[in-house]
Amino acid sequence: MTTATKTKVQVYLPRPHKPYQEMFVDSTYKRIVVRAGRRGGKTVGVAIRNTKRFLQGRRQLYLTPTSEQLGKWWYEVTGALDPLIRLGVFKKNETEHFIEKPGTEQRIKGKTAWNADTARGDYADDLTYDEYQLMNEDAWEIVGQPMLMDHNGDAVFIYTPPSLRSAGVSKAHDPRHAAKMFKHAQEDKIGLWQAIHFTSHDNPHISREALQLVMEGMSKQSYRQEILAEDDEIQLSWLVYRAFNERTNKIDDFEIPKNWLVHTSSDFGPANHACLFVAQDPGTGNFYEFKEYLPESGRSTAQHVEEYKSITAGYNVITRLGGNRDEEDARQGYTSHGWPMSPPRIHKVNAQIDREVGMMELNKIFIFKSLYNRLGEIMNCLWAPDTEGKPTDKIKDEAKYHLSACARYLYCNFTPETVVHIKSRTSHSMSM
Asked: What is the DSSP-derived secondary structure letter of residue 44?
């Protein structure tokens, strides 16, 4: 008598990061559109989703226009399923990039596809398009939809807003076709479509230092598209600080000379405290933002003051601003700990911004590349739209721009046309 034995095999998959990657990995919507930043976890996320659904007996087809993306997806899938392949439960074809259960329709396959012709010849329970913005629309409209008809399958579309660098390789007739699909998903009222948006910053596994280096070399538009995954239907003219010239005024860090004047400006809050440290060249009157302070929550006023003193040690701090007109109690708290503060001279937000923008137009404001949070706010701060989609004079999500608040508190104290030029006995040269 032969007794059958069972072998228990554990399949290990990466744990999807919360909430965004997890959101589409486990989604039950029939049509899902994911708009995400570079290295945001899109490809790994769909590899997890495809593998989980394959193990449920469903037939998976992953399409992407580039072999690089296919290689990343294939690495995740084969790594997870390797124990079952070794046992002979599944069969792997490395050349054609598929894994299947012999004698069944259960299969997971990846292939490169740009258009209808390269996507033909298959069917699926789950169809995934990665880097969909680069594909021709007919890859879905002509070929993809019929692939799902046999079993009323599901489809996932993943994209990053197209940039100028990708325009040359895209096969799309309409470069905005993925963005239009995302908007359609947002407006869906019947529960068929799901729209998910997340940024590169939302991937907890990305090195913050590496992301900072990438941001330093990006234009506003590239940053918004490739990191923040913002579509370009909102024009750059909507940017509050579009007057900032990042090509000339985003500069390499250097040591601030000890004879330069230093200004500080704080935005209060127990959870979102911020302070901006700005040096002023006495020879030109130009301002150099050299340090941003965004501590973790839970620090006391005394602890903040100690940090301020440490950052400004050896410098002549001539301005200490903080908060708006109604935050006198907070200012008194800092004063009692040895850091006397004053309110900004102008209290209306738009008037403050006008002064700051005026300084930017005169190229009076320079920002160190290491201040990536401050630069990120400049690149993303927009005027809010009205009900007709036109820009208003209100800042969209104003409460989250803490360093921008610090900056406008400070610069509104100066009149752009009459910035004081103080003669200096020393000179300083730098590479711009």
From this structure: H
| Residue 241 burial by Cβ neighbours in a 10 Å radius (0-12, 13-18, 19+) | buried
Whether 70 and 206 map to the same domain: the answer is yes
The Cα–Cα gap between 163 and 393 comes to 28
Between the alpha carbon of residue 99 and those of residues 47, 126, 153, 183, 429, the distances in Å are: 13, 15, 19, 35, 61
Give a yes or no: residue 426 inside a domain: no
**Token digits of residue 203:** 């991937």
What is residue 381's three-state secondary structure? coil
pTM, two decimals, is 0.56
Same structural domain for residues 218 and 257?
no
* Half-sphere exposure (Cβ direction) of 201: Cα atoms closer than 13 Å: 12
By three-state DSSP, how is residue 86 classified? helix
Tell me the per-residue pLDDT of 175-223, one tens digit each, with 9 for 90 and over. Answer: 678 888 998 999 998 999 999 988 877 776 677 777 677 666 666 666 7
DSSP 111: E
Q: Do the Cβ atoms of 399 and 262 come closer than 8 Å? A: no
What is the helix (H) or strand (E) element at residue 138, kind and residue range? Answer: helix 138-138
Structure tokens at 205: 């596994």
Same domain, 107 and 192: yes
The range of the structural domain enclosing residue 165 comes to: 20-227
